[in-house]
Amino acid sequence: MEHKSLFWFNLGGFINRIVTFDMMNNLNLPLVSIVVCTYNAGPYLNRQLDTLVNQSYKNLEIIVVDDFSTDATLEVLDGYRDYPFFKIYTNETNIGFNKNFERGISFAKGDFIAICDQDDIWALDKIELLVRNIGENHLIFSNSELIDSNDIPIGKELLPQSFNIEGFGFKSILLRNFVTGHTCLFSKGFASFIIPLPESGYYDWFIGFRALYYKKIKFLNLNLTSYRVHKDSVIQKSLVGPTSARNNLAWINYKSTLTELRCFKEILALKQSDKLFIEKLVNMYETICAKSLLRWILFIYINYNDLFPFDKKRKLLSKTRMLKAKIFVQEVLNVKKSMAKSQFL
Questions:
Q1: Are 97 and 37 in contact (CB under 8 A)?
Q2: Where are the transmembrane segments (predicted)?
Q3: Could you tell me the domains of the chain?
Q4: DSSP one-letter string for 234-299
Q5: 3-state SS, residue 91
């Protein structure tokens, strides 16, 4: 029997949204596996887990894989064992977040898999909306608002409201990731394309690349997650560089991008021409010097519109396009020099 209900959710105490949805027979809903990876989760885990067990979408399994926490994380998890769909696994050693998510995905039995961080807050209709909108795509992702350690929005979003991936090719994600793991839901079948996950780099950048490469990706422009920004988050802890460049955004971008490009070029399913393009970018990051500067400026200049989709599209003879290519390549060179001096490359 069809039943209409009005779903109201106050996101972080600041965003009110009213969603009308049909209550469907649970037996007709595809199973969704929410994979949560924990490691010394700290004080935020309860807030996140409460928004998972109270999702409007009812055919769920929640898979938590703890990566050898040494704090009270397991005690918090034990408080949710009464939920029959809540499953807890523990690692005997710390294996890192990429491999921990890989292990969690391997346990998933759902038709769809959603990725979850340990310290965010989900909209209670998040899974409902993602399942409704994924269609025939491999993967769907959404937007997030940023909150601080006290759950207060800081007035920023991960992606601009104008963001739209229509027309994006795989080159658009090579130098900047815009598919964040905590916003993703993907089909079980897609898991075979992304497992095993790389040992290094960011798993979400990798899976975003794979989905975009096959043109089976959709963006839902709604803030379905409150993404917590705090000093103890996994991402913040991973952004450690040489003392002279620590917390330097250019250094962070260099390190992350080169790591991901190296992962991308090893994917066997790539067309040879696409593989060669990625290898050229790797070569630029690894070997750039003053003598090769002009060659790399021309390479970036020619491919600028594809590589920088967030920027305004510019004609081939655009002076601004050439200037931006010069600035980008010079920055890569400067960071490489800085890293070489610090003996960190």
A1: yes
A2: none
A3: 3-234 (3.90.550.10), 241-341 (no CATH)
A4: HHHHH----GGGTT-HHHHHHHHHHHHHHHHTT-TTS-HHHHHHHHHHHHHHHH--GGGHHHHHHH
A5: coil
CA distances from 139 to 53, 158, 217, 224, 246 (A): 22, 18, 5, 15, 34
d(CA 233, CA 256): 17
Q: Which helix (H) or strand (E) covers residue 186, if one does?
A: strand 185-187
pTM: 0.87
Structure tokens given for 331: 């920055």
* Tokens representing residue 292 in the block: 């090769």
Which has the closest alpha carbon to 294: 254, 250, 325, 331?
Answer: 325
* The two structure tokens encoding residue 226: 């409150």
Contact 212, 176 (CB under 8 A): no
Per-residue pLDDT of the chain (345 residues; tens, 9 = 90+): 333 332 233 333 333 333 334 434 555 899 999 999 999 998 999 999 999 999 999 999 999 999 999 999 999 999 999 999 999 999 999 999 999 999 999 999 999 999 999 999 999 999 999 999 999 999 999 999 999 999 999 999 999 999 999 999 999 999 999 999 999 999 999 999 999 999 999 999 999 999 999 999 999 999 999 999 976 554 444 434 444 444 467 888 899 999 999 999 999 999 999 999 999 999 999 999 999 999 999 999 999 999 999 999 999 999 999 999 999 999 999 999 888 776 554
Give the span between the Cα atoms of 327 and 314, in whole angstroms.
Answer: 16
- What are the DSSP E strand ranges found in 67-104? 86-90
Report the alpha-carbon distance of residue 165 to residue 228 in Å, rounded. 24
